Amino acid sequence: MLSRSCLIAAAVCLGLSPALAQEEPQVVRQKLMKEIGQSVGAMGAIAKGEKPYDAAVVEQSLTVISTNIQAFPDHFPAGTESGHETEALPAIWEKPEEFRASAEKLHAEAQAQLASLPADQAAVGAAMRNLGAICSDCHETFRAKKQ
Question: Quick one: fold of 4-142?
C-alpha cells in the first residue's frame, strides 16, 4: 500500500511534469525553488506560531521540498548559465557532483522528516533548523547573493 506522502509526491510530479517540460530550464528551476520557498514559508509560519500546527500542511510541505529538490539538479544543462534572471553561480557547472550531493542531502533530510513527521510546533521548528542549514550551505556555494 502506498503511503499518503508517496501519493502526494506522485501527484505533484504528475501535475508539474508536462507544464515544466515545455519551459526553459531557468524558468523550470525557478518554479521548483519558488514552490520549495512556499513550503518552507508554510512550515516557518507554524514554527513561529503564526499559524496553528497542521500535520497535513507539514506533510505536504515536506513532500514538495523532497520532490522538487530531487528534480532540481536536472534543470541545469550547459548553456543555461545565464538568462531569465538566473541566480545560479558557475560553481553549479564547475562542481556538478557537489551540487547534486547538496540537493540529495536536502532530499534525504526532507525524507527523514517525513518518516517521523514533526508532531507539533516545536518539532516543526527543529525540522526547519535542519532543513535551513542545508539550504543555506547550498545557497552560499551555488546561488548568487540577491542585490
Answer: Four Helix Bundle (Hemerythrin (Met), subunit A) (1.20.120)
